[in-house]
Amino acid sequence: MMTTKLMTLAVTLIITLGLKAQDDKKTTPAQVSFAYPVGTNGSQSKEIANNYSFNILYGINGGVNTFELGGIGNQNHGDVKGVQIAGISNITEGASSGVVIGGIANIATQTTDGFHLAGIANVSNGSANGAQLAGIANINGASTNGLMLSGIANIANDDMTGMQLSLINSSHSNMNGFQLGLINFAKKLKGFQLGLVNVTDTLEGAALGLISVTRNGYFAFEASNSEVMYTNLSYKMGTSQLYNIYTMGYSKYNSKDVYSYGLGLGTLIPLHERHSIALEGITNQMAYDDDWSQLNMLNKLNLTYQFNLTKRISLIGGPSLNFYITEVMVNGEYGTLDMPKTIWEHKGDKNMHYMWIGYNVGLKIRL
After folding, report:
1. Are 340 and 356 in contact (CB under 8 A)?
2. How many other C-beta atoms can be found within 10 angstroms of the C-beta atom of residue 264?
3. In degrees rounded to 5, what are phi and psi of residue 332?
4. Per-residue pLDDT tens for 170-212?
């Protein structure tokens, strides 16, 4: 117990002395330098903080309290507070807070707070709070709170709360918020992803994209029959709250083959241990007699009851609302499906629209 108290006292003393040494660093109202060490503070400039700092080419100083301007770059061996502007780069070996603008890059070894704008990259080894805007990338080594906006990539290596907007967004730990990009990755996300490809280990929320993969999410295979298609095979993945549907089907019309492929979205609503309801919207492109070139599209809204025979196998069935638009004519009539009685029809200049109530029955296997 005594040893623990002595160690705690020693650590506290070291931290206190370190903070006092930082507070006791000499501060001048202003400095002007051409290029280190040619300046008003000379070779001692690394140990001196300044309220105002002007570096015609490149300066190395002990810190900034209000404003710093550098033609090429600013480098500080201490904290920077206020406004810092450089033609190429700002390098801070301490904490950075305020407005920091660099033509190429802003780099900080400790915490960054405020607004950071860089032509290429913002890089922080510590936590980042506020807004980071970069032409290429924002990279944070510790926790992030706020906005990350860049042209190519945003990378948060620790917890993040806020928004990431870029072509590639990555959060390597817990994330609460929103990702918008071509490719989005989050280890554990509580929020929403919107992108072409979305990947998470664990998702509390939803992901919307062409491909959305949640490692601990929802995966299912389904075989079904409808009033116009002999067979439909579907693969579903995402989360039960929102999942992607990839489907293909086969039928015949006028003794010739009809194939279909489609994409959709769905949500699964649990009612009981053995009962659930799925609401799904799917768009299918049809090919009659191997002709994929013409508009021949079947859009379906399915309301499907699911009875779970086991934990993984379910019987499914329910009504569907079908909207069919086609410009394909067979024997002088529009359409390549044996449609039931329609509830609405409309003839366009070069196509025909149909609407009817159908059904969907089959078997689902949860993977």
Report:
1. yes
2. 20
3. 80, 5
4. 999 999 999 999 999 999 999 999 999 999 999 999 999 999 9
Provide the sign of the torsion angle of the four alpha carbons 212, 213, 216, 217, taken in this order. positive
Helical H segments across 24-126, by residue range: none
- Rounded CA-CA distance 51/58 in Å is 17
Handedness of CA 82, 108, 90, 53 (dihedral sign): positive
- 3-state SS of 159-181? CEEEEEECCEEEEEEEEEEEEEE
For residue 37, say if its preceding peptide bond is cis, omega within 30 degrees of 0: yes
Domains of the chain by start residue, with CATH:
25-214 (no CATH), 219-366 (2.40.160.20)
Q: Which pTM value belongs to this model?
A: 0.85
Q: pLDDT of 57-115, one tens digit each? A: 999 999 999 999 999 999 999 999 999 999 999 999 999 999 999 999 999 999 999 99
- Bin 2: left if φ > 0, else alpha if -120 < ψ < 50, else beta: alpha
Phi, psi angles (nearest 5°) of residue 280: -135, 140
Point out which residues pair with 222 in neighbouring strands.
Answer: 234, 364
Which residues share a beta bridge with 295? none
Distance from C-alpha of 48 to C-alpha of 55, rounded to nearest angstrom: 14
Residue showing tokens 């664990």: 202
Q: Cβ–Cβ contacts within 10 Å for residue 272, how many?
A: 8
Cβ atoms within 10 Å of 67's Cβ, excluding its own: 18
The residue among 312, 323, 317 whose CA lies nearest residue 281 is 323
User: Per-residue DSSP letters for 303-359?
Assistant: EEEEEESSSSEEEEEEEEEEEEEE--EETTEE-SS-----SEEEE-SS-EEEEEEEE
